[in-house]
Specification:
Layout (H helix, E strand, L loop, with lengths): L20 H13 L4 E8 L2 E7 L9 E2 L4 H14 L9 H4 L9 H5 L2 H5 L5 E2 L10 H7 L1 E2 L12 H14 L3 H13 L21 E2 L1 H12 L3 E2 L2 E2 L3 H8 L23 E2 L6 E6 L3 E6 L4 E7 L4 H11 L32 H5 L3 E4 L3 H5 L9 H4 L10 E7 L3 E8 L3 E8 L5 E7 L2 E13 L2 E8 L5 E9 L2 E9 L2 H15 L3 H10 L3 H5 L3 E5 L2
Helix pairs in contact: 1-11, 2-7, 2-8
């Protein structure tokens, strides 16, 4: 269902509302220089959009995966439920799911929804690695690292459990609950939110939102819960959720990661009186309370602190007195639409219409992440991961190749891969995920075909290289940005968590090999 248009008002120029566009331009240029690939940027001051930009082929109407920014939305649902008396901060997990009392676990019986949402639950879990429908039981059986309420640890799965608690108490899904209370009043089209196997919104991840949707959300919080003069979110909740609830400096070493945590929101070290929503690969919504300003960006960069450091370098320098006469700079982001020069060869005739079957790779199936046409940063969080690409078929025409394949779960797709020097757009469906993809292909060598498939809502581009010989095929999967940089950052994080030379030796051994482990060469042959 489409909502009423409630777009944020646009300023005549950035300078007219107190934003120095030359400073913002320098900030975007430095991000580009550092390899911080920004997909979109929107800056708001005095309740007006001062400047906005998208990296082509992205645009304002294309939703983006926001990863842990989802937590701020679940926190908002919790705030509504508190205000309506449907739940309390002291509501325990066992109050909602009394069957867990059979565990006879004293810590589990103390665990409240507030512990979960403030990251003081005390569990260390990995329910996303479980194929079980009963993620709640996986969570309950996980080990304790501290007693609830006595320390802080960022655990994604806390938010799934909180989401399940809220759904049970409310008697409806989080999406159904938020639609009349948040989405409709803000003019946000009801967004896709990834579900767990039992149909509950994942809570801590999985939302797909347009840049302006995120901007409306953070602007509403900045205005104490009001949007266009209407009270949407309870004022007291906007202050509580974004405030300093828990000291997380012991667990988090990066300055901004350890500046304090609220309820689904982070405090910032780089500027006083500033808080943020934050998602993996630098999805940000930042509120500068002292300047009546917000910054929203989507990105594909793996180093969260590096991106924040660049922002703090140019903020608050960008905030100036409003000046309608001051010269304005045009803010642009790098264009990523370039494709290679078209080239065709005789191999197309030899493989045209053939169907190739690939052997399954045992190890990546054992760890639960078989290769999909969608890159790992998407399927890692997905309920329906697909994977084990098979029944590959290449049908060539004057403009390119119609590529079809199947994946686990009965998912079959067919997309057109442009090979004429332009990009083509199509849709890939894997379970609940429906992704608009931009793609193009070319022949690297006489018998080597390369396809670039970029889901526009994602942070990565899938690259598939096919090598043909007689009736056999090799597939070399990879994605851009590559696994190595992300693995290095994860490895550094693990070294802070896992103490001991043995752990560090294994981290150093595995990190350089992650790309080959998760994207191994696949072998196959044509059907007879």
């Amino acid at each position: 269902m489409k909502t009423l248009n409630k777009s944020i008002e646009r300023a005549k120029t950035p300078e007219s509302v107190g934003i120095d566009s030359s400073v913002i331009l320098k900030m975007t240029e430095e991000m580009s220089y550092r390899g911080i690939n920004t997909h979109s940027l929107m800056i708001i001051r005095n309740n007006m959009v001062a400047c906005e930009a998208w990296s082509e082929p992205l645009g304002p109407e294309i939703p983006h995966m926001v990863y842990s920014v989802s937590k701020s939305f679940l926190s908002t649902a919790y705030g509504f439920a508190l205000a309506e008396g449907k739940i309390t901060r002291e509501t325990k997990l066992v109050d909602v799911f009394p069957e867990l009392l059979k565990k006879r676990d004293a810590f589990l019986e103390k665990l409240t929804i507030h512990h979960l949402l403030c990251m003081t639950a005390g569990k260390q879990t990995a329910i996303r690695g479980s194929k079980s429908d009963d993620w709640l039981n996986v969570f309950a059986e996980a080990k304790w690292i501290f007693e609830p309420g006595t320390s802080w640890r960022y655990v994604n799965d806390n938010y799934y459990v909180a989401s399940k608690m809220l759904c049970a108490v409310l008697g409806e899904s989080i999406t159904e609950y938020l639609t009349p209370r948040l989405y409709d009043p803000l003019g946000i089209d009801v967004p896709f939110w990834e579900h767990s196997p039992d149909g509950v919104e994942s809570g801590g991840w999985g939302l797909m939102l347009k840049t302006e949707d995120i901007a409306k959300f953070i602007l509403c919080y900045q205005n104490n819960g009001k949007y266009n003069g209407e009270q949407i979110i309870p004022e007291w909740w906007t202050k509580e959720a974004t405030g300093f609830i828990t000291d997380n400096s012991v667990s988090e070493k990066a300055p901004d990661a350890g500046a304090g945590y609220g309820c689904g929101f982070w405090r910032c070290a780089g500027m006083p009186n500033t808080y943020r929503c934050e998602g993996m690969f630098c999805q940000y919504a930042i509120s500068f309370e002292d300047y009546n300003a917000c910054l929203v960006m989507t990105s594909e960069h793996s180093d969260l602190q590096e991106t924040l450091d660049v922002i703090w370098k140019y903020m608050p320098r960008a905030f100036i007195e409003p000046d309608s006469e001051k010269k304005t700079c045009k803010i642009t982001l790098p264009d990523r639409t370039a494709v290679t020069v078209p080239n065709r060869n005789e191999t197309e005739g030899l493989i045209n219409g053939k169907i190739y079957n690939l052997r399954k790779c045992r190890f990546i199936n054992f760890i639960g992440f078989p290769v999909s046409v969608l890159p790992m940063p998407i399927v890692f969080f997905a309920k329906d991961r697909g994977g084990n690409m098979n029944e590959l078929r290449f049908c060539f025409s004057e403009k390119g190749c119609t590529f079809s394949w199947s994946e686990d779960g009965g998912f079959k797709n067919e997309i057109f891969i442009s090979m004429n020097g332009e990009a083509s757009f199509d849709e890939v469906v894997i379970g609940e995920l429906k992704m608009l993809v931009r793609s193009y292909g070319f022949w690297e060598k006489d018998k080597t075909l390369v396809m670039h498939i970029r889901p526009l809502a994602s942070v990565s581009e899938r690259v598939l290289k096919f090598e043909f010989s007689k009736n056999r095929i090799k597939m070399y999967p990879s994605y851009i940005p590559g696994t190595d940089e992300k693995a290095k950052k994860v490895g550094e994080k693990l070294k802070c968590i896992l103490i001991g030379k043995w752990f560090h030796w294994w981290i150093d051994f595995l990190v350089p090999r992650v790309g080959r482990i998760l994207n191994p060469t696949h072998y196959g042959k044509a059907q007879k």
